[in-house]
Amino acid sequence: xxxxxxxxxxxxxGLLVVTSCNEKAEEKEENKAEVYIAAVKQEYAPDKRVxxxxxxxxxxxxxxxxxxxxxxxxxxxxxxxxxxxxGVVFSDSIQLLPAANVEGKINGLIKISxxxxxxxGKHSAELVTQATLGTPVKIFKTNDGWSLIQTPEGYISWxxxxxxxxxxxxxxxxxxxxxxxxxxNPYGKSYESADAKSQAxxxxxxxxxxxxxxxxxxxxxxxxxxxxxxxxxxADATPYLDWVASVDQSGEDLVATAKKLxxxxxxxxxxxPKGVDCSGFTKTVYFLNGLIIPRDASQQVHxxxxxxxxxIFKNLIPGDLLFFGRKATDSxxxxxIHVGMWIGDQKFIHSMGNVHISTMDSxxxxxDEYNYNRxxxxxRINDQEGKGLIYLAEKDIFMSKNDSTSVQE
Length: 409
Hints:
The protein is an alpha+beta fold. 24% of the residues lie in helices and 35% in strands. The termini are far apart.
């Protein structure tokens, strides 16, 4: 092959490569629907932990096929309106949740002491959070023995169907109107009869909610979401409405609750007395004092009132949340990765390895230099208002007295 032929061949190859790259770029650029999908997702579902908008546009000649699923009708409608206004031709194959296979039972109740909720519908998937007995959830769909659910704080995850029961609207309304108790001991059991020596029915943990049937011989007769009956020692529980009227998120009560969980082992995804991660610990402490707060530290940090960001701890009061992580730089964003609760006297309690108390006092032998160095800020959430904070005395998700809404939208 002479030089000219080689040059012509190389030129042809180059032309083909450029043409191919241009065609791919042009093809990518022409998928206008994906641009609008991204914009709608950013507006309506920026946090996939609490909002589902899994939508894609597949190009077919001069039209787009919208596929995927979402629990946000407003977001789907906004996307379709935008596409129509821009003259983009499409067909809608998006599945709005709840899915048909839920068969009208979109209301769910956790029916075991602690249900493990996972990132996918399989036991090998990551544990992302937990939900305790009597927690109302919204059921979006079921698949191979698992259900995709949303908890009261908005978290979306999968639960083994052995941990949840689905209810119709009528069944759920009846459950909400029933008298209930809340279990307050960190750990315990229910029994077949009003006798602690009788056969155990199940384990119980603090925060479990059960229907109240009667009061006899120092025990509450209770009913589980699946209809099972048992007895609970009155010393370990209290009528729910009495409890919710008595809690006020005072610093003293928050610290007392936190100290009852001292030594509890760290568990990634844990939000119960069976194990807690850092934000699961603060969430559990606040829930046991009548306030539902966001699940993760990176969500909790966006609630409440800023108290400090300069390591001047004199303005902190018991119950304030301290956040730790990586500060923002010119090239990286801030990353919140840990949270603890202030208890006073330069100390905070947190789950790291286990639930324990650390100090910010640099003169103390137990000075927590590691967390001091990565401290970001302190927020106060008790007595504050805002998205993500649900006061059970005002918006009760367990009873019909104050609220008829089943689960936070």
